[in-house]
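Comment thread on ticket #2218

A.B. wrote:
> Attaching the input chain for the structure job we discussed in standup.
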Amino acid sequence: MQEKKNRWAIIFCPQKGSKQADKIWGKIEPSLREKEVLYDLFKVKTDGVSSQVDSLLEDGYKTIVVVGGDFELSEAANSIMNLEEKERELVALGIIPLGNTNDFAHYWGYSEASIDKTINWLKNHRIRKVDVGLITYQSEEDKEKEHRYFLNCVNIGLVSSILNLRQQTHRLLGSKTLSFLASMVLVIFQRLDYLVKLKINSQKITHKIMTMCVGNALGYGLTPHAVPYNGMLDVSIVYQTEITQLLECIYLFWTGKLLNHRNVHPFRTRLLEIEESSKAMVSVDGKMLPTPIGEYSITVEQEAINFLIPD
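C.D. wrote:
> Ran it. Output below, let me know if you need it in another format.
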């Protein structure tokens, strides 16, 4: 137990059929050896991260390092959040970014292109307590209240529909490029408006929206000013828009100026209560949730996880 306490548990999540992942591990392993890092390696599929981390925590590991993206990091964070607070205080979570979406890693300055520097930073074991978002909901599949923690963001509406399309087309076509192109074509036929009723701070809003992002961090560019250590969530609501305005929205998104669009309404809050969302799809750190029914809420737990950050 003591030996494992002083070793990293590295969760390596290579994407299926990805030669790039093997090349990246070929760069990680020599760097770990050169820096004399004590570690145990666990290669797992994305959907097995949570159960693997549960086992590692039971075995006594105190430093969990994920080689993956936002989704895999979120899976590890959810396992850590299941610990009692006193136990959680002893665990640190780190990231070596790999994959397509690494918003939380990028927020801190980690880069897929700087593996050696990343491992140096992780070895220095500089800890920052970070906030963790929490969505509480009920689905048709399960009549009991469910919950899911997140580090990056919750998306409601069109962005989640696009994510769902990409995942479905990738399973069918196998290629990321083909699935991206196919999903971009199919999005034309997706629903672009959802009537939502929500309460944010003291304000009640009833409006047709296209998409909404609740960010603890960058939110894939939709909540660019979110800070994961101030006990607040940033909310960007994109109201229903015409197709020409949609193109303008996309342009501003890619140039980092989305919040300047007249149909984008930003808020900052500790609690968002959604009374109705017209069965809009919901995703949490890239994971599709069963569509919530009835009311659901999104809040934040301040300084809940020890995260390893750069110097």
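A.B. wrote:
> Thanks. Noting for the ticket: The two ends are 29 Å apart (CA to CA).
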